[in-house]
Write a structure and sequence with these properties.
- By secondary structure, the chain is an alpha/beta fold.
- It has a domain of about 190 residues: Rossmann fold.
- The protein is built from nine helices and nine strands.
- The strands form two sheets. Strands 2-3-1-4-5-6 form a six-stranded mixed β-sheet, sandwiched between helices. A three-stranded antiparallel β-sheet has the order 7-8-9, with no helix packed on it.
- β2 and β3 form a beta hairpin.
- α8 packs across α9.
- One of its GO terms (biological process) is cell division.
Length: about 300
């Protein structure tokens, strides 16, 4: 509209229109033992069959000998906004008797994506938009043991939190009572503090007091106790996502039943752009500096 009101907020409209035209990318990795509901959780998160479907092949294929990473890319469109979503699954992580160095393939994959981006960035003639395959968030599924974190969990998060945003969650939280869940959460938080493991959202990267206040509330509740489900059930005349048991239906989107809505808010509604910014400005930047220093050494 010509000769209409002109204000600085018009810049926001321009940015919105441009983003809607170009779309954006979001890459998420899910890590945990087999049977903790990683694929179901991702499908619940985006309300689509975006993760690999559970197959029932022979025993050798079902439990791979090594951690073979599988990436699946989808383009999700909602209200005219396109999102290129890449889900990386890690079947076989922590399933072996000897889990020594089972995180190496995951670290290698994450660094390969940084390397791919770096190679595109240092070209003389660069693309206008460099394809972004870097992992923006890693959701780590902790088994619902109700005890302490296992040495495997601690070692994984200690190594991975230095190169990617790690969001720990308690998988299949409906197997714990409310008291067990609260105690398990407290123990996990103590473990992370004792071993100086900085999971997302990291305190060091809070920009202003408002961010710090919001992130402090999130940090109090992490790890989220989540339940995933990709089947709908009838509850009080409404169709809800949930798990049907003998004694009732666990509604995954009901905060009184589990903390899945809090995880979805963190990953999509409030912190999706922040996950991407920290990946670019902190994790990728430290990788870039290290690689350029290596190449400059005589």
């Amino acid at each position: 509209q010509l000769f209409g009101y002109v204000g600085i907020e018009a810049v926001l409209d321009q940015m919105k229109i441009k983003t809607m035209k170009t779309g954006f990318e979001f890459n998420i990795m899910v890590v945990g033992q087999s049977g903790l509901g990683k694929s179901t959780m991702v499908n619940t998160l985006f309300k689509s069959k975006v993760s690999r479907k559970a197959s029932q092949p022979n025993q050798e294929e079902r439990v791979p000998k090594t951690v073979q990473l599988q990436s699946i890319t989808h383009v999700i469109e909602e209200k005219g906004v396109k999102m290129k979503l890449t889900v990386t699954d890690t079947p076989g992580f922590g399933d072996q008797i000897n889990n020594e160095n089972c995180w190496d393939p995951i670290i290698k994959y994450i660094n390969e994506q940084y390397e791919r981006y770096l190679r595109e960035e240092i070209l003389i003639t660069r693309k206008r938009k460099i394809p972004d395959t870097r992992v923006h968030g890693c959701v780590y599924f902790v088994p619902p043991t109700g005890h302490w974190l296992r040495p495997l969990d601690l070692e994984f998060m200690r190594r991975l939190s230095k190169i990617v945003n790690v969001v720990p969650v308690i998988a299949k939280a409906d197997t714990l009572t409310l008291e067990e869940r609260a105690e398990f959460k407290q123990r996990i938080q103590e473990d992370l503090k004792t071993h100086a493991i900085s999971v997302y959202p990291q305190e060091d990267f809070d920009q202003d007091p408002d961010d710090r206040a919001l992130n402090d509330r999130i940090r109090e509740k992490i790890p989220y106790a989540v339940v995933g489900a990709d089947q709908e059930h009838q509850v009080n005349g409404k169709r809800v996502l949930g798990r049907k048991t003998k004694w009732g239906i666990i509604e995954v989107e009901n905060p009184a039943h589990c903390e899945f809505p809090l995880l979805r808010d963190l990953l999509i509604r409030s912190h999706l752009q922040d996950l991407k910014d920290i990946t670019h400005n902190v994790h990728y930047e430290s990788y870039r500096v290290r690689r350029l220093n290596e190449s400059n050494r005589p």
